[in-house]
Amino acid sequence: MESKRPITDWLPITKKELEARGWDELDVIIVSGDAYVDHPAFGAAVIGRIIESEGFRVGIIPQPNWRDDLRDFKKFGRPRLFFGVTSGCMDSMVNHYTANKRRRSNDAYTPGGQGGFRPDYATTVYSKILKELYPDVPVVIGGVEASLRRVTHYDYWSDTLKPSILNSSNADLLIYGMGEQPLRDILRLLDKGVSFSGLNSIPQTAFLVDRKAETPKNKNWETIELSSHEKCERDKKAFAANFKHVEQESNKLKANRIVQASGDWKVVINPPYYTMTEKEMDQSFDLPYTRLPHPKYRNRGDIPAYEMIKFSINMHRGCFGGCSFCTISAHQGKFIASRSQKSIMKEVEEVTNLPDFKGYISDLGGPSANMYGMKGKIQSICDKCVSPSCIHPVVCSNLDTDHSQMTEIYRKVDRHPKVKKAFVGSGIRYDLLVESYNKEVNKSIDAYMHQLVDRHVSGRLKVAPEHTADETLRVMRKPSFKHFHEFKRKFDRINKKLNKKQQLIPYFISSHPGCEEADMADLAAETKDLGFQLEQVQDFTPTPMTVATVIYYSGYHPYTMRKMYVAKSAQEKKAQHLFFFWHKRENQQRIKDKLVNQGRMDLANRLLGKSQKRAVYTRDQEYGKAQPDKTPKWLRDKRKNQKKRR
Hints:
CATH topology of the largest domain: pyruvate-formate lyase- activating enzyme
Largest sheet: 9 strands, mixed
Shape: globular
Number of domains: 2
CATH architecture of the largest domain: Alpha-Beta Horseshoe
Strand content: 5-15%
Helix content: 25-40%
Number of helices: 26
CATH superfamily of the largest domain: tm_1862 like domain
């Protein structure tokens, strides 16, 4: 099918494709660290299609070579308006390194999964190259990497405090968050002849001004001045205190402007736009995407990130969970922006018409699958809210947690003649589905749970309790583990009623700020009692612009300024991670010695004694590939006979 489509169905990525459209110049050139996939899940494609929809000529330079004569950066020449730069769908350092700072050999956003096609700190590298080649052409940076590094931030991989990415990249303007709204306004103003220096009143943007100069006036916004970058370097408490303002202003519907001095400059961060409306969301998702990788990659292998989502449907953006280790709300916002049912069903139809569609939609979801359509009951209350989470420490009484819209969409998709099964592959917020955690329980929750378990679980349902210790969970902004117990009982009860044998896949984190070794021992024992042997686990990775990262670097909680324990050394982290794998024989003596030394023989007996039959979850199973039992038949029969004799 790809070979039959004209190359002009994709945005141009070569000079030849530019000429095929009859163009000799571009208005905007996008430089991206990802391969070009023309799909609404890939940022460069979304931005490119929006620019196109506004009537401008746009091209993409995907994964340019930054180590040769820089011909990739020069192939289109200079754009009429500006260069747009992004590292891609991920922060390049998260993309490149594990939690232990080991270099990854693969890259999910590159054909064949090959690594090495983007630099570390890609946004900065690309931007500096462009400013050297075309010093008079404005550079606008955006995407996750730019968005989360817009103020002084801790960089885990260099173990240093870095200033705003605007300082290091030499870029002229930064768009943070999801960029559709500011981008449209920027394009329209530039087209009217407004200069780049005249764009200082665009919401959701950041820029530099001379440190000694007066901050541009705006009668609509109050200004909050943060501690300078230099003060943050001297004083970790000042850095921690800054973050409370950054997080609150990022998640307010009527926010203040933020200013921070750094070197010879001041970073000015304008408040965000109001949450996108249903109509605006539909505009972004209904653009004429081919939903396919560019044909040039045909012989280089599959792009893993695309293969994972090509039969999935993203129904909404944003997350009001506010988890302290997560960057979703920092980038997408805490208020939910949902698409219309019409737009969602239109995309379902497009997916079912793809040439290799076999009848299975891999995901009907979003950042958290069961937040679609949820918002405040009284909008004026939300307008004044400063809380980073709508569901911690309790579910807000103004939050409408009705699940009926989701149930309705699931049923509509289920009835589609070309859909055999539509799964919910995104993780769900189980705390929204249990009576013990919700003040106002409605019938829609039970109807949703029944529909979900009956028709949309691919044998395994992802949930993220993250920990079992209440103190650690409070730091994480997650509910008490007792609510997970209730959810599991509810899940098991529905499965039994439906005569299904489906499993929960729980996600857990070790070495999170506030978590001590004893908490991990309790986690191991608690999950063992529930019948789990955990494989899908991770060590905490500090990423810019999260509460947990601020605590990790500074040692202080930014909201209480209370000193907190943090596992930092490789030895401390390894000791915590060990408890995930208590069931491995080679770990058991070490775990026993640790617990005995701590006077916790009771926990040692509970953890290492005999227990009920356990469910084992492997990484392969998480991705839907069940591991076959490779035990020889003669040995299985022998064990079976031994059990009978006992």
